[in-house]
Every structure is written in C-alpha cells, then in structure tokens.
Write a structure and sequence with these properties.
Low-confidence stretches of chain B: 224-239, 439-450
Helix content of chain B: 40-55%
Radius of gyration of chain B: 31 Å
CATH topology of chain A: OB fold (Dihydrolipoamide Acetyltransferase, E2P)
Low-confidence stretches of chain A: 149-159
CATH architecture of chain A: Beta Barrel
Radius of gyration of chain A: 16 Å
Strand order of the largest sheet of chain B: 14-18-19-17-16-15
Mean pLDDT of chain B: 80
Oligomer: heterodimer
Strand content of chain B: 15-25%
CATH superfamily of chain A: CheA-289, Domain 4
Structural class of chain A: mainly beta
Structural class of chain B: alpha+beta
Largest sheet of chain A: 6 strands, mixed
Shape of chain B: flat
Number of helices of chain A: 2
CATH topology of the largest domain in chain B: Heat Shock Protein 90
Number of domains of chain B: 5
CATH superfamily of the largest domain in chain B: Histidine kinase-like ATPase, C-terminal domain
Order of helices and strands of chain A: EEEEEHEEEEEEH
Number of strands of chain A: 11
CATH class of the largest domain in chain B: Alpha Beta
Number of domains of chain A: 1
Largest sheet of chain B: 6 strands, mixed
Number of strands of chain B: 22
Strand content of chain A: 35-45%
CATH class of chain A: Mainly Beta
Chain lengths: 159, 625
C-alpha cells in the first residue's frame, strides 16, 4: 500500500475529528462552500452538483462518505476541486488545514483500525509531527461502484 | 505519407462515394443523361488524381480502370444497362472498402474482391482501334502550385495512355534567378502523344486544367483534320470554403454556450439592481442581439443538409427490394433541409431500420399489390421538412399498413399491457415501440414489425426527438420523427420542486393546469389521473420519482407530450422561461434516469433538465398496473 504514496506535498484537511491528506498536485482549486443542487437518486455520499466555472461537477460530502455524524456547513467549509482521471469533482470538507511535506519513511502502509473507513480510499497513514494523517487516494474516491457502474444503454445525449 | 493530406483525401473520398452512388442510381433511371455521366466521370477522375497525388498507387490504378470504363460510357461505346450500373456500384464499394482499409492504417493489396470487380470492369471495355497521334500544347496557370496540382502528373497520365513521342519544355517566360518566384509556374509544354485512345479521352486528362481561366490547353489530332475544341467541359463547382475540424466547431459552440449563460446572469444582475440607467439597458440590448446573432451563426456552421445521408438510402432500398423480391421506388423529398451535423449522422441507423421495416413488412409483393388493385411498384417516401422550430422526418410507405387491434393483441399476449388497459387506436400502434414487443418471435404475422423499433425510439430520444407511428390498414404506414434543430441549446421552462429547480423543455410542454381537486383520482403512491376535457391523463409526481421533498399536492400540473402520448408532471412552482445550454451530467458524473442533462441558470446555480420521453416510458409501463 505504501508504494501507492508518492512522497511530496500534501494538503491536509479536517473531516469530523480526523485529519486527512491529499496529494497537492491533484488539487485544482479550493472554493467556498456553496449549496449543491441535488441529483435525483444519487448515492448517499454525493451531496449534489455545483457549477465550477461552467463545468457541472459532483460534490462528495466527506462526512457522509466516511460515515461520520452529519455536520453543519459553516464559513470554514471548503470544497476541494480535484482532477480524477478524466473527471472533475469536489470534496466537501470541514476545513482545510495546511500544506505539509510527507516523506516516504513517515508513511505507514498497513493499519489495523482501517475497518472504520473503507480502506480502499486510503493509500496509507502519514505522520506529521505527532499527528496521524489519513492519506486519500483520489482515484478511488468515486469508484465505479460509487457511481453505480451504470452506463445505461438508453442515456442522455452528449451534445 | 503526409497524414494531413491523407486525412483530407479520406474525407474527400467519403464525401465522393455517396455522390457517386447517388449519380449512378440516377443514371440507371435516365441512361441518356450526359450531364450525369459527366458528373460521375468527374468524381472518379478527381478521386483517382488525389489518390495518385498522395501515393496510393493501388487505389489509383483501380479507379483508373473505373475511369476507363466510364470514358467508354461517355463516348457511347458502352451502353448504360443495369449490369453496367451494378458493376460500377460494385466498383464503388470496392474503392470505398480500400479507403476504409487505408483509414484503418492497413496495407493495401489488390485483394480477391477487387480483382473480381476489376475483371468485370475490364470485361466491359471494348477492344480498341488503331493508334492516333495528337499534338498537345499545355500551358497551366502560373498559380498551379498553390492549388496543389502538379503538371508532371498530367504528363505522367498521358504517358500511361500510350507513347509520348515528343516532350518540349517552353522556357520563354522563365525570369532571371533573382526574379524567380519559386511558387509560380513559368513553364509550358509541347507534347506529342501516340495512343489508341480517342480525342475525348485525351481531353479528359486536362479536365481540371481547363476549368482554370488562366490555363490553356490545345489538343490537335495530327492525322485527322484539325477539330476545334468544343465548349469547355462543365467546370467543377468550386465553393470558396475552408475545411474545419468538427472539434473546433464544437468548442466554438461551447464557448457561445458560456456566453449565453453569462448573458443570462448579466440580465439577472442588471434587472436586480434598483435602477438601471437607460444607457445600461441599451447596451445590454445590443449585447443581447449580438450574442443571439453569433449563436445563430455558429449554429448554422454545424448545419448540413439531410441529403448527406438521404443519398445513401436509394442504394439500400434498391438492394433490399431486389433481395426480398419486391418492387419499390424510394422518393426523397426535402433533401436540402438542414440539421445539426451530429443529429444527421445519428439518424442514419434509425432511418435505415425504418426503411428496412417498410420494405420487409410494409410493401406487399407485386402479386398481392395487384390483387389489392394497387400499383405493382410500391412507393416509400422519405420526407424532411421544417415545422415550428422542429425538423420533421417522415418515412411513408403505401404498403399493407398495420391493424392496431392486432398490435394490442400481441402486446397483451406478451404481457406488456393488461387486459383492462383502455387504449385509443393511435396509442395501440405506439405499443410497437415498447422494449420486448418483438422478442417473443413470430407469434403473429405482424410481430415482425416490432423488430428493434424500441431501439429506433431510443436512438431518436437520445437526439431529444420523438417518434410516432401512424397507419391505416391497406393504405400504408407513416413513421413521423420530430427533432430539435440543434442539440446544444434549448428553450426551457424553469420550475421548482421543493428546494430544487428543474428545466422542462418548452417543446414538450402543452399547457399548465391548476386542477380542480375533484378532477384528480389517485392511483397509487406515485401516480394519479387527471380528468381533462373529458379525457383521462396520467399524472406523475416528479418529487417522488426523484426522491425530493416537495409540496406534492398536485395543485400545479404541467401537461407535457412525447409524440402522441400526453401526461402531467406535478410541480411546486413555475419560475420562468429561459434559453439554456445543455450540459452532460456524464462528463463528470454519470447518466441519471429521467434527466436529459443539467444546465447552469442565470444566477450560476445548477438545474436538472427533465427528459420527458424517458418519463413517458415509465408511464407507459405503469399504465394499467
């Protein structure tokens, strides 16, 4: 697992009481929380879609994604816009904390208590000082399973 | 090989083959039409030249044989017969296949099929007579190089026809080296050709050179009395145009879409401000007009006449009819009607399907038609026309027609509808579009009519169009397709459902209804019926369908229609009409059932676009259950 982590700069953010990190190179932009429009019959973790500079992108609520208690959206709530494969998506987090360098030696690949979360979204746990940071694998965040794996034959037309 | 040149050639070839085919089929009907023969000749000649130019020798040689045969037709040495048309069509197919192979990056060799066709073509060529001598004075236009032509190719072509007994270069106009413009052609040639070919054939080599007013070519048969050159051949119609990749047009269209959104936001912002000055309003109006004009203009660049696909159908119908032992005439009407290029391309399959249906099941065999006192030759009409901001396409046959009651029986047998379902005759016919209608095999002799019609409907729905079927037994069947002019922008009605906004395409909306509660009858958790002017119309709760909390009291209904099917959608509020740009939800998310995409509204928020025809499918399945 640890080999999935490229060492480098990580953006850290907070969801509920936990600290997470994501490769800063994958972050396109940070935007202030705006209320997404709901998508009918979407998976629970998908908060809706927003207009990101003319693109309509889904927003994943990280609290719901990781089964935390629902929280309030406040002035610290941030949507992290990510490039994932050929798609753009947003992660709704409680607050963004810092950008920190994490070296390979500080990343632990295997963890016992990962059961709490879906381990496949993580690519390891990094150590920043005394603080543990869960490192997210952006490519796995919105997996085919999450998207419902539905490319139905009858579909919308892409103009 | 130059990739760009190759791509251009493949495009040219793919445009040329359908024209060739169309003209060949037309020639079959009017074998004496010299203009048609000339047009066919020109197409083959030009393709041959281009193939040679980019080094596709095998294809060039092949087309050369076709050209030789056509030349014989042109000089009336070979008569126009159905066999001849067949050979030329086969030749066209073989050439098309070769181009496809080149396009796929495969190596070309003279395969078996090509050899057969080649032999066939050769078989039509009459033995040639004695040799003749021609004196040729060639003076191409000084601008020749800028057109991509090469005089050397012309001379090479002459050399292939026989023996060039003399080649003199005229260098009189050659300037000094300092004054020489390398892009200008200063040379002329005097040539003597000994060949078995006749004068017309030699002239054909220069068919495009002669079209240029700056060029001069004189050909004098030396052993005959000098014959004055007749009127120059009809020059190729050269429209001044630039080839632009469709991706660029798409990007342009997208950008205009952004502009339309920005305009709407601007209007909202200005109207929201307390008091906008007349200057601001005036400027805004100008901007508005400018954007609308730009939008129309960009849209028009994507429009192509339906002829680009219509022209392929006579061939398909001809072969189908031959195969099925039927006699069918295909009439094309409104071929110059223009539609979005993407739409036109995606119509090929559904129309082919409907034509096949018409030939297979619609048109009766000649004997049966005589018995029914109809003309022995059946007619299928493919008709395109514009009507109220939509494009209508009709496939009409004068065949046996469909008995709606038998369709209903078949649907009952297949369990697609319930015994008690009350349907009008028009509605019975629409059952043919239900998925699963045809899968039960040949239960009845009309079951074959349903084959794949659900797929056709699906294809049309994806183009945001609708399809319906009309028929009168004994008289024939009509498939009518309604399509939007463009796919990228639509006029929509913004409505509210709970906290969310949705857009319903204006083209699908019939009216808004504030119903009297006593006209509503609840059928289940998700559906009700509304009595509207003596008719019952299903009512669908969008909120329940989409899992949204809303007022959901059926106090405001939108009557929509999909083809001939009408139903109501319960909404909370009507917010207003707006021109919207359709965005795909698939780009960053995935397809959502019941939605045609999403759009960005004037305030920057996102609204989902309701897909009326996919909802209509839900209703159709739900009715009577």
């Amino acid at each position: 697992m640890a080999d999935r982590v490229e060492q480098g700069q990580f953006m850290t953010f907070q969801v509920a009481e936990e600290e997470f990190g994501i490769d800063v190179m994958r972050v396109q932009e940070l935007i202030r929380y705006q209320k997404p429009s709901r998508i009918p019959n979407a998976p629970k973790a998908i908060n809706g879609v927003i207009n990101f500079r003319g693109h309509i992108i889904p927003v994943i609520d990280m609290r719901r994604k990781f089964n935390f208690e629902p929280g309030k959206y406040d002035e610290f709530s941030v949507i992290i816009v990510l490039d994932v494969k050929d798609k753009i998506m947003g992660l709704l987090v409680d607050r963004v904390l810092d950008i920190v360098p994490i070296v390979k030696e500080d990343v632990q690949g295997t963890l016992d208590f990962q059961r709490e979360f879906d381990a496949e979204y993580l690519c390891g746990v990094g150590k920043v000082g005394e603080q543990l940071v869960f490192l997210l694998d952006p490519d796995e965040l919105l997996s085919q399973r999450e998207l419902g794996d539905l490319e139905e034959a009858h579909g919308e037309f892409d103009p | 090989m130059n990739r760009e040149l190759l791509a251009t050639f493949i495009e040219e070839a793919n445009e040329g083959f359908p024209i060739l085919e169309e003209n060949l089929l037309a020639l079959e009907d009017s074998p004496e039409d010299q203009e048609l023969i000339n047009a066919i000749f020109r197409t083959v000649h030009s393709l041959k030249g281009s193939a040679g130019l980019i080094g596709l020798g095998v294809l060039g040689d092949f087309l050369h044989h076709m050209e030789e045969l056509l030349h014989k037709v042109r000089s009336r040495q070979v008569e126009v017969t159905t066999e001849l048309i067949n050979v030329l069509l086969q030749g066209t197919d073989a050439a098309r296949e070769m181009v496809a192979r080149i396009d796929a990056g495969e190596e070309l060799e003279v395969g078996k099929a090509e050899r057969v066709v080649e032999n066939l073509i050769k078989s039509f060529q009459a033995p040639t007579g004695g040799k003749r001598l021609f004196q040729i004075e060639l003076r191409p236009s000084p601008q020749t190089f800028t057109t991509g032509a090469d005089p050397l190719m012309l001379i090479g072509e002459l050399a292939e026809m026989g023996e060039l007994t003399a080649v003199d270069v005229q260098t009189d106009d050659l300037p000094t080296l300092e004054e020489l413009d390398p892009y200008r052609l200063y040379l002329g040639w005097s040539l003597e050709l000994r060949t078995e070919q006749d004068l017309q054939r030699v002239k054909d080599v220069f068919i495009f050179v002669q079209a240029d007013p700056d060029a001069s070519v004189t050909i004098t048969p030396l052993e005959e009395a000098a014959v004055k050159a007749k009127t120059p051949l009809a020059s190729r119609l050269l429209e001044h145009s630039v080839r632009v990749p469709t991706t660029k047009l798409d990007a342009l269209m997208n950008q205009v879409g952004q502009l339309v959104i920005a305009r709407a936001r601007m209007v909202d912002a200005v109207l929201g401000a307390a008091a906008a000055s007349p200057e601001v309003m005036g400027a805004l109006e100008d901007l508005d007009q400018g954007i609308r004009d730009l939008q129309d203009l960009v849209m028009s660049t994507r429009m192509v006449p339906v002829a680009t696909i219509f022209n392929r159908f006579p061939r398909i119908v001809r072969e189908l009819a031959l195969d099925r032992g039927k006699e069918v005439r295909l009439e094309l009407k409104g071929s110059d009607t223009e539609l979005d290029k993407t739409v036109v391309e995606r119509l090929m399959d559904p129309i082919t399907h409907m034509l096949r249906n018409a030939v297979d099941h619609g048109i009766e065999p000649p004997g049966a038609r005589r018995l029914a006192e109809k003309e022995p030759i059946g007619t299928i009409t493919l008709h395109a026309y514009q009507k109220e901001g939509s494009i209508v396409l009709e496939v009409v046959d004068d065949g046996a027609g469909i008995d709606p009651n038998r369709v209903k029986e078949a649907a009952l047998k297949k369990g697609l509808i319930d015994e008690g379902t009350a349907l009008k005759e028009e509605e019975m016919l629409q059952l043919l579009f239900l998925p699963g209608f045809s899968t039960a095999g040949k239960v009845t002799d009309i079951s074959g009519r349903g084959v794949g019609l659900d797929v056709v409907k699906e294809n049309i729905n994806q183009l945001r169009g609708s399809i319906e079927i009309l028929s009168s037994p004994g008289m024939g069947t009509t498939f009518r397709i309604l399509l939007p002019l463009t796919l990228a922008i639509l006029d929509g009605m913004v409505i509210r459902l709970g906290a969310e906004r949705f857009v319903i395409p204006l083209s699908a909306i019939v009216e808004f209804i504030w119903p009297d509660p006593k006209d509503l009858k609840r059928l289940g958790p998700d559906a009700s019926l509304l009595r509207l002017r003596g008719e019952y119309v299903p009512v669908l709760s969008l909120a329940r369908l989409f899992n949204l909390s809303s007022r959901d009291d059926n106090s405001l209904l939108v009557l929509v229609q999909d083809g001939s099917r009408r139903f109501c959608l319960a909404v909370d509020d009507i917010l207003g009409q707006q021109q919207i740009v359709i965005k795909s939800l698939r780009d960053n998310y995935r397809h959502v059932d019941g939605l045609a995409g999403a759009t960005i509204l004037g305030d920057g928020g996102v609204a989902m676009i309701v897909d009326v025809s996919s909802l209509s499918r839900l209703i159709l399945r739900g009715v009577g259950q």
